[in-house]
UniProtKB/TrEMBL annotation:
Gene3D superfamilies reported for this sequence: 1.10.1660.10
InterPro entries, A to Z: DNA-bd_dom_put_sf (IPR009061), MerR-type_HTH_dom (IPR000551), MerR_fam (IPR047057)
Originating organism: Paenibacillus oryzae
Domain HTH merR-type: 4-73
GO MF annotations in UniProt: DNA binding; DNA-binding transcription factor activity
Keyword DNA-binding among record annotations: yes
SUPFAM superfamilies linked: Putative DNA-binding domain
Record keywords: DNA-binding, Repressor, Transcription, Transcription regulation
Pfam families cross-referenced by the UniProt entry: MerR_1
Entry protein name: HTH merR-type domain-containing protein
Length: 263
């Protein structure tokens, strides 16, 4: 009575494809017990257990090459080292996935905030924010591909808010948020804010002028540099346009009075 099974029967028993079994054979980690006269690969109980062990080690994160080098008679200490390395890799992957989950949740929350109905202009409290300056440029030049290519970009640039701090001297600091002390700090303050979508630099300039005109019409005294925050990741929801939020610090009434300005 024949005790061996074919590659198709082995694949069905172990819940894998025949292609995967042939791949393991190509890598010389699983060979058939023998090939019969009809050129069928035949597998016995020993190969069943060996495949089970290969699949377990693959599930634990070991490469096929590592399995090939270690599967035949590794010492307990060698196997322990391999599994400890697998744990380290899994923890790194868990951390990566957790960061990816937080990024995805943040994008969804930001999209809900900016997609919902809200006044075009609003005054809100800005938290103190440390910024790491990426580079300076002329505010009138704006951004282009050549300018970006000349810089050393921070990691995950377009997954983060990009701050364009427009200075009084016509220069613009291009920054990202920093978790430690940065090159520039935006103080906690009340700001006039204006979220909008724009396709090009000309439209951005127009929006800035509109907000300044609005502040003047409402006798809102502004203080400090204009800060334009680009949320490029939200373009996932608005193709061909970028999401921005323009914010300028509101001068408090006593400060404005001292400077002779109306509020």
């Amino acid at each position: 009575m024949k005790n061996e099974i074919t590659i198709s029967e082995l694949a069905r028993l172990m819940g894998v494809s025949t292609h995967q079994i042939r791949y393991f054979e190509d890598k010389e980690v699983l060979l058939p017990a023998y090939t019969d006269t009809n050129q069928y690969r035949m597998y016995g109980l020993e190969q069943v257990y060996r495949l089970a062990q290969i699949l377990l080690l693959r599930k634990l994160g070991l490469s096929v090459q590592t399995i090939k080098e270690s599967i035949d008679g590794p010492s307990p200490e060698q196997m322990s080292q391999l599994l400890r390395a697998s744990v380290d890799n899994l923890e790194a992957e868990i951390k990566r996935l957790d960061e990816l989950r937080r990024l995805t949740v943040n994008i969804l929350e930001e999209q809900r905030e900016y997609a919902g109905p809200s006044p075009a202009y609003r005054i809100k409290q800005r938290k103190a924010t440390e910024l790491k300056c990426w580079f300076h440029t002329d505010a009138r030049r704006g951004m282009d591909a050549m300018l970006l290519a000349k810089q050393s970009p921070p990691p995950d640039l377009f997954e983060s808010d990009i701050y364009f701090v427009i200075e009084d001297n016509g220069k613009m600091a291009v920054c990202t948020e920093s978790k430690t002390e940065g090159d520039l700090m935006l103080p906690e303050s009340r700001c006039l804010c204006y979220p909008f979508l724009a396709e090009d630099e000309g439209e951005i300039e127009l929006r800035i002028q509109h907000m300044l005109q609005y502040a003047d019409s409402q006798s809102i005294a502004l203080n400090g540099p204009a800060v334009l925050v680009e949320k490029s990741y939200l373009s996932l929801f608005s193709p061909n346009k970028l999401n921005y939020e323009l914010m300028i610090e509101v001068q408090e009434k006593d400060e404005a009075a001292q400077n002779g300005e109306g509020v």
